[in-house]
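Page header: ASSEMBLY MODEL / four components / 1416 residues total.
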Amino acid sequence: MYLASDNAAPAAEEVLQALARANAGASAPYGRDEPTRRVEAMFSELFGREVGVFLVTTGTAANALALAQITPPWGAAIGHAEAHVMHDECGAPEFFTAGAKIVGVPGLDGRMTADGLKALLARDFWTPPTHVAPAAVTISQATEAGTLYRPAEISAIADVAKAHGLRVHMDGARFANAAAATGAAPAELTWRSGVEILSFGFTKNGAMAAEAVIVFAEDLVKNLAERRKRGGHLWSKGRFIAAQVEALLENGLWLDLAARANATAGRLAAGLESRGLRLAFPVEANEVFVWLPPSADDALRAAGAAFYAWSSESIAPERSGRVGDRLARLICSFATPDDDIAAFLAVIDRERVA
Amino acid sequence: MYLASDNAAPAAEEVLQALARANAGASAPYGRDEPTRRVEAMFSELFGREVGVFLVTTGTAANALALAQITPPWGAAIGHAEAHVMHDECGAPEFFTAGAKIVGVPGLDGRMTADGLKALLARDFWTPPTHVAPAAVTISQATEAGTLYRPAEISAIADVAKAHGLRVHMDGARFANAAAATGAAPAELTWRSGVEILSFGFTKNGAMAAEAVIVFAEDLVKNLAERRKRGGHLWSKGRFIAAQVEALLENGLWLDLAARANATAGRLAAGLESRGLRLAFPVEANEVFVWLPPSADDALRAAGAAFYAWSSESIAPERSGRVGDRLARLICSFATPDDDIAAFLAVIDRERVA
Amino acid sequence: MYLASDNAAPAAEEVLQALARANAGASAPYGRDEPTRRVEAMFSELFGREVGVFLVTTGTAANALALAQITPPWGAAIGHAEAHVMHDECGAPEFFTAGAKIVGVPGLDGRMTADGLKALLARDFWTPPTHVAPAAVTISQATEAGTLYRPAEISAIADVAKAHGLRVHMDGARFANAAAATGAAPAELTWRSGVEILSFGFTKNGAMAAEAVIVFAEDLVKNLAERRKRGGHLWSKGRFIAAQVEALLENGLWLDLAARANATAGRLAAGLESRGLRLAFPVEANEVFVWLPPSADDALRAAGAAFYAWSSESIAPERSGRVGDRLARLICSFATPDDDIAAFLAVIDRERVA
Amino acid sequence: MYLASDNAAPAAEEVLQALARANAGASAPYGRDEPTRRVEAMFSELFGREVGVFLVTTGTAANALALAQITPPWGAAIGHAEAHVMHDECGAPEFFTAGAKIVGVPGLDGRMTADGLKALLARDFWTPPTHVAPAAVTISQATEAGTLYRPAEISAIADVAKAHGLRVHMDGARFANAAAATGAAPAELTWRSGVEILSFGFTKNGAMAAEAVIVFAEDLVKNLAERRKRGGHLWSKGRFIAAQVEALLENGLWLDLAARANATAGRLAAGLESRGLRLAFPVEANEVFVWLPPSADDALRAAGAAFYAWSSESIAPERSGRVGDRLARLICSFATPDDDIAAFLAVIDRERVA
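Prediction written out in full:
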């Protein structure tokens, strides 16, 4: 019953096999290898246009590099107040940007809105050179609340951004889950809706460690290679990142795995709700936030379930917990066994009877 | 005939197998996994003392993190004038140190000497706060010239360093080659000789991508975890770095592979010398620097040999080339086929006859 | 009627005279001059203990240097959500700290409270190395709302800080106004209440450009000289900063000038209130925040009054404006002519009659 | 006999008077004042074209800001190996550029040559993203050796720079001395010869503390205001920097003062040579580097003369000292009394007789 994070999952078998296949003979280093070439072409095909591709191995690196491309040291990158880039990367965006500000805007269900962004930009502390200049917007897809942005919502945010001269980044650590859940084309979820640079995550979705910075806006390719090298993120044996990504992109494996994770989360959520438990956020991808009575929480942990206690200021009033309830975050991966879900719900059943 | 770098080698089979073994079920993320625990213990045993272990996946990251631990922004890290950290990491040390200076000291055969270091430290531009303060020494083992430091040489440098309050780093991207070639114990090559923090490379020696920052000086552990996270170098699925390292440390595989690379280089060097070609540096590990007549250089490239043209100001006068000669760097890895060496020499033979 | 800021004031006559006196013959550069020596002694006497003194010429430099001494790149400095260091220094603290986070805590009347700080520190995103570590607290004295902290309030905040291992900074850009208004001894307002490093501002209070970073905690002296030099803030002709400070410290001129500014603000506030206008914050030093009906605002501006339109989320409900009212910030300096206050109030009188 | 540096001089009387004149009533802060406006116009007139003007108060700040405008973090700024920006600013250029490299090129008499630059650029470690990219050239006028660049030399260097895509900075901490000595028009010494951004120093030449970053290349104005603010170098009471500069620009006072310093140095040099002492560099501006026999050195110091012992690898063989000689750096300012020169030479006379 490991539901603490999808990053605890193993790699997909196909990924391991691809690594083995790639492990033959000498290969030009530093991304000049064949698998990297192929992956670049696959991304361009996937997105229906030429894109820049920069492979790295952590989401933190992908986000920090992407944000550094669009946020000068005296600029601000604006995201949802509870976004991963705000809190969970130990200041990596500040490091890679050489000291920019990462500014949060509140919003229900973990989602920033175009109106919220507009309101923030209308505030009066953006006068250079006294203040930092708003430079970038970063949209988490899926959000830290496990919710999604539809293309129209992304467009609305990007329109506000563009009207103010801001560049648009998407933190797609769980982009696959979003794509699988919405059924929207990758192009619709990104560049057609105004996204200019994307952190496309594979690690949580079946890779060992692979993330791609995908660049849609041509001018944002410049010097990204230098930033990556300087950050220590250019692998010499680049084929071993590319092989992972290739395996996942092939035949839509990435979407299959994400759909599986989403479906498992959906079953878990349904099971919880049918047992009278309240969900703090709509379950739209592979994350479930549920209010647990202390006794259920305790019983689950006693039974060995692993999950995080959570807190959020982004919960809609009608979804708030009862007094004493504890908020739990449950994340399903492509590899979460159905048995774990059943066992998890069984603990709750037992606890309610008791 | 790929002799451009050992980083073009594949991974060792044992490493691939270890990845497959590690790929089972959920595992605590961010280095809290079992393989990482085991690897930490293995390093402590290998070095004969408690050490701090921080796994990353590039040598640039390992060096930059290590140097940042020992060089404040207003400090200088001193290394050989042609060291990798000086030139080949796109300023990663400057980035991770927040703008320290990396200062070169010349020395024959790619080696810094205790006297050279002493002379540099005696120069008159180290008066704070006008000047940056010398803070660290970084020793490349093996050097960019493929030469080695013996324990006594390391001690001599470290003694000068300590007398001036400098901390001592070793860039061991090819530490395995040095250990295999000298037969010296890892402890002798490091902490017993005054090294306080080590970048221990595995990537060039059979890993897919794995490097360990090994910390001997207890006070240098502090905040290294934060630096690694902030640099985007903390893998969520940490077991997959650890598994690589474990496979290489087990039963001394790392030494076997390095010895194989060294031996291949030795055969190549002998073959070149026996054909009347001059070596620019003594061949002590897995790198061969040879002066090629233009015709030989051209013939080799025409035959498909891959290697770098080189230049160095560190060559002993008696080892300089003849007028017109071109300096070539040839690196052998554990996976360099004997046939490649034979083919390489055969081209030279054919060219001499012609 | 220039009430936009006290930084628009000229320098005090005594300061100009001191500069002229200091302008005689050669003098050792870089702070090794006599006036600097004397000023150091004066500060130690003023604070009743040995202190470290680092003169610079802008409040931004003083704050950024001080915060960099106490906040590592992976740390957070916590201050009031509307503090100057948060918004008005173009990211200077982020720059000098090499990318730390500056985190805001809300609080009424521009003041952080010990409880607010405690609540923030109890939040769940301070787990290293995922999150940045809270490292410092910065207290603005006077606040951006023109309000003050009494020694007991400072102590309460510092106690929370210390219990959590945080260092304590005071941004005293208007420290003189606070000292004059409270009558508290400088020692009471700082180190006796737990402040470890202080930005002591003179520029707004009669200097041309002079600020002192005063260090109470001995360990915080280390490397501040290097930071200042590296930031370009070490003057060669240091006597000309020192002379300004000396003139202001002599015979308590700094307190006299601040008291004059405070008194002028007090008269202005009383005049506004007696005319039925509501103040948004208690007037405790030299700043007045008043709700103006649009017609009054327009009339004042038409009459040539210079002041900033303001906004704040820190206003107590009972002090909020009437619908349509505009919030104005009025700052008095030691040099604000009484006639300006009279003229300002006269415009309001005329406008009310009309 | 204070000859240690021209930065030990007082301010010119005219500067003090200008400060007093500027000290009247309220003035818009942050460089929006009248004196700043006037100074901007004066610079445009002086250089015979529109220029961007950014006033600061230290040469270190001016240089670091200018270099940051033209050198990205993954770039290199190239200057003479003994230039001030290399060694004497505690890494300020590295700080403001966020970790660029400052690379030295050797050259006789403290001067970089076009050929030296070309040779450096032809070296083989400039391949991105492995290596940092050469981005900027910085020319010190006058050099650390007190020598000058003529317009043709500047043009030659700038031509090489431009051919390689490098931007051109001039560190004009002693630009006035160079202009006075060469008689060349400021335009000839800068933009007409390819200089794109200039640190124009006034502090050593009669100001209290005033330096101007002068921007000739229009695209280099962008974000310089933000860099200055963020570095803590934007004065609120900007009129007090501007007033200094205005006083010096008015009626060519800056040239008169510099000419006086140069003439004094010329007399000193002639006196030394006529006494059989050898100069290490040609005396072209206000600095004299002389080889002193130890007895003369000791006698001068005993007599209270203040000057620096020096060393340089840039001395022409025919100008090297006799065995045992000590190299002394003597700098004259506009305020160096003739009596000091006479007294200095008298000590030498006495010592020779003895």
